[in-house]
Amino acid sequence: xxxxxxxxxxxxxxxxxxxxxxxxxxxxxxxxxxxxxxxxxxxxxxxxxxxxxxxxxxxxxxxxxxxxxxxxxxxxxxxxxxxxxxxxxxxxxxxxxxxxxxxxxxxxxxxxxxxxxxxxxxxxxxxxxxxxxxxxxxxxxxxxxxxxxxxxxxxxxxxxxxxxxxxxxxxxxxxxxxxxxxxxxxxxxxxxxxxxxxxxxxxxxxxxxxxxxxxxxxxxxxxxxxxxxxxxxxxxxxxxxxxxxxxxxxxxxxxxxxxxxxxxxxxxxxxxxxxxxxxxxxxxxxxxxxxxxxxxxxxxxxxxxxxxxxxxxxxxxxxxxxxxxxxxxxxxxxxxxxxxxxxxxxxxxxxxxxxxxxxxxxxxxxxxxxxxxxxxxxxxxxxxxxxxxxxxx
Length: 393
Ligand SMILES: [Zn+2]
Known about the structure:
The protein has about 400 residues and is α+β, with helices and mostly antiparallel strands.
């Protein structure tokens, strides 16, 4: 019989039947294509499911992270037939005459060329700060999304539509085109050919309300921001990355127990004593630049004094820092002197792993890194594509 295991996240003994495959670095950060060492099996199903919805999603779907990831992807999109880009979220919108069913909310998003997207979706009060709402609800409960393109130029609307369809993938959403698209001869393109639904009477009415609000230049929005969106996530990521890099020695450290306390706060009012800086307490913005890379989700692991510290940034912004454990821990994955840097590019399903020293040498031009030069070339092409898109009318 297989022996029980201690769950990395909750620290409780669990049977093998309760073990699940967990990516220490979640999918939205590019964890699906991260090195194999970041795949864990010592995580229980309960932690995997509950932390995915209440901890990973609280971070991933916060307004800041959603929009930073969209900006990062934009830096790596090089041509019209690249995959659609993540939409940027503006926030819940109040549009005059828009019919929003009970228990739903209208949310305003922006496409890569400035397309307006209005998504009428189920609302879950507990997830007011989640862009896109409750991710499980929107897979099961129906919603309607409208897109208003900014241009009839195929170069622009093709990427806009592809981005719209990608954002609604696996969502139970009807898709309505809110403007006519015409061929060169002036004939209107049938929206169903482009993957849209034919509007019902109510949807046609809503389409008019959205158009009127756009022409009036007036879509009032409200942004719900939870400034503590990252605390539990930081601790969870520290557990996953710390164990992946340092192995069993990581499990016996007092800091590991504190990180668990941060993931599952005990009901007795005590809080985790782990050291770190959450996203908005990192006052020095230049730190994110140093510990980051354009277009990348960057994970930095460095020895500073008595501790190993991890920092995370997205597109050189929104840094967070957390202690992984004492600097006495060693690992053949981490260079003691030069640290460990993992750059993830979720939009391109790729990563670059190197030392912190190598990353800094590349960024400062002292010594170029071949893998990063490839990324830099993609970014240069993306920047040209951006100019081309902006010039298309
Ligand atoms: Zn667990």
